[in-house]
Amino acid sequence: MAQPFSKLPLTRAEGTELDIDSWLRGIGLAQYAEIFRANDIDIELLGRLTNDDLKDIGVVSFGHRKKLLEAIAQLAGAVPASPQPALIEPKAQDAAERRQVTVMFSDLVGSTALSARMDPEDLREIISAYQKCVAGTVQRFGGFVAKYMGDGVLVYFGYPQAHEDDAEQAVRAGLELIEAVNALKSAVSLRTRVGIATGLVVVGELIGSGEAQERGIVGETPNLAARLQGLAGPSTVVIAASTRQQIGDLFDLDDLGPKELAGLAELQRAWRVLGESREVSRFAALRSERSPLVGRDEEVDLLMRRWKQVKTGEGRVVLISGEPGIGKSRLTTWLSEHIAGESHTRLRYFCAPHSQDSALYPRPSVPLACGMPPRKKVPSRYGRWR
Predict the structure, then answer these.
(1) What is the DSSP string of 54-70?
(2) I want to staple 225 with a disulfide (CB 3.0 to 4.6 A). Which of 14, 75, 103, 109 is the partner?
(3) Per-residue pLDDT tens listing for the chain (386 residues)
């Protein structure tokens, strides 16, 4: 008798988790586990961390730093302290590195006019609320707030941790930021504009000292992002050609054509982001051409046998597992194309790389599959899901 559940393992490597992951989950800050691993921080090193150290590795939120430091203090009696030298050695200079980074530059629209008619203290509260809004929004998408420049904010995606979808997450963060700023409650209506560019930079070296210390970044990309931000209208995200190449058809775009930007010798093509695309499949959205299916005869035969059993009324489930890039999506696409002429209902849902700590986190594919327009306000969706 055929089993109702089939598993197609495409070779999966097993990893190990550090003890520090459990500790971070226990204090409700599991989102920083990747940052701690990337910087080789284990339980023994926790007691040596300072507020400045947490800033350096990317913990931007003041509240989160305080919470971490308080939790570390509680561990002081449980974790054996390593012998400390009598003399404090000077901190080694951080080495810069060459990285591909997606840079976002956001600006508060009309801040100059606000400064002319508002009391400085009131303006300070508005700018502070705006900066907190930007920091909270971009962090959810893996962004690193590099610098606050008055009413402008410089954000890196791909530093200190790199992800394969940094450009995509930067665009999603830009769209989300526009909605978040529009929803801010203040004495005046606030709007922002965003410029995004992707490219090679040299980043990471600490420059300045004290409160003026920051992570330096050298290259054309930050300047291009700033110029595109100036090109953008209120509540608009404008991206460079380098970012456009990374996001495929995941978003609906308006081609603005070649633009002459100050400080850049060549004309730069720019696109305005209109919203998320109705193309549900990430596999199709990120690939302009289809590669042939090679070496999967056994898996294809199993899928077709299960499909034939389903058509006779027997329920079947097939799980395809494997390392990234091994061909899981390509295999499911082949099956969809092969049975396209037969009666069936297809539902597709996709996980979010930066929401792996949130169980059953709904991606935009869920409302799209329900026939709702993209980026509709979440509360209004519930009634249609019931």
Answers:
(1) HHHHT---HHHHHHHHH
(2) 103
(3) 555 655 555 543 344 344 677 788 778 888 888 888 878 887 777 778 888 888 888 888 888 888 888 888 876 554 444 444 433 344 445 567 888 999 999 999 988 888 888 888 888 889 999 999 999 999 999 999 988 888 899 999 998 888 888 999 999 999 999 999 999 988 888 999 999 999 999 876 655 554 444 567 788 899 999 999 999 999 999 999 999 988 888 899 999 999 998 888 889 999 999 998 875 555 555 555 556 777 888 988 999 999 999 989 898 999 988 887 788 878 888 888 888 888 888 877 766 665 666 666 555 455 555 556 555 444 444 444 44
- Find, among 42, 52, 360, 381, the residue nearest to 210 by Cα: 52
324 Cβ contact list (under 8 Å, min separation 6) = 164
The span from the CA of 47 to the CA of 171, in Å, is: 37
| Token couple for 143 | 């962004």
Of the candidates 263, 287, 285, 265, which has an alpha carbon nearest to the alpha carbon of residue 276?
285
Q: What is the DSSP string of 13-47?
A: ------HHHHHHHHTT-GGGHHHHHHTT--HHHHT
pTM confidence score:
0.60
